[in-house]
Amino acid sequence: MAEEKKISINNKEIVLSLPGKELFPEAGITKSDVNDYYSKIWKHVQPYAEDRPMVLQRFPDGINEEGFFQKKVPVYFPAWIDTIEVDVKQDNTKEDYINCNSEETIVYLSNQACLTLHVWLSKKQDLNKPDRMVFDLDPADDDFEKVRKAALVLKELLDSGNIPCFPMTTGSRGLHVTIPLKAENDFDEVRDIARQIAQKVVEKDKKLFTTETQKNKRKNRVFIDYLRNAYGQTTVLPYSLRALDEAPVAVPLSWDEVNDKDLGARKYNIKNIFRRLSQKQDPWGKMHKDVPGLEDIREKVLAQWKTAAK
User: What is the DSSP letter of 117?
Assistant: First the structure.
């Protein structure tokens, strides 16, 4: 097994170490496979990664060993990697996070065994004002049908105010539903509206859905998690790998796909994702066309839902 190989991307030299090392042992997926995946997927990832602080989930010994999260950029990372200065509000300090805005950066990260990539809901232009509202539909068990139903109820609610929303498999057990926003309001304001929306979803079926934060109180219900809408919180990057058997991928979906009862959270993986991409345009491609403001959601969705409920 070769110990290393050198490659050049956009005139940046990267030394790929231990390319034959298996990071997904059961599937036989090597570090070289992961490097190749992130290089090839970059053009699809770029719109969702660049200009957002990134949090890395690293598994240097493969997915069968415990990994770790990394926020601050290590001192040994090359100087050509762009960074974003972040206020760490807990202790009033500043730290540099990765700004993954190039193919060479994502390949370098993959060589550091960064299997799963997470990004902020705001951009470097104003980190206090998110341009996304995200709901993580998190099941208490592996019953994906309940997750699918939660997503469809959420869409029904948002459709009542003509608010666009975009689903994504997480590559794990659930779904994410994202609302694009004008970056005009702070996280507290966005989270308050997200909480009200989550509560409206729960009101539709309290036996299936919950906003209970304590796991032991959720029973077998789907957690409508709105808490990610906070400063410093992240969501999994579209097309990121997940550190699970067969290397599943987080994949943007159309709502027609969510309507399909055969959909599963891990339907797509490192081995079949490119066939999908060759056959289907990115369902999130028009996400930032006609983006609503927070007041649009407050007035058109919550008010409309109250009227319909009477």
Answer: E
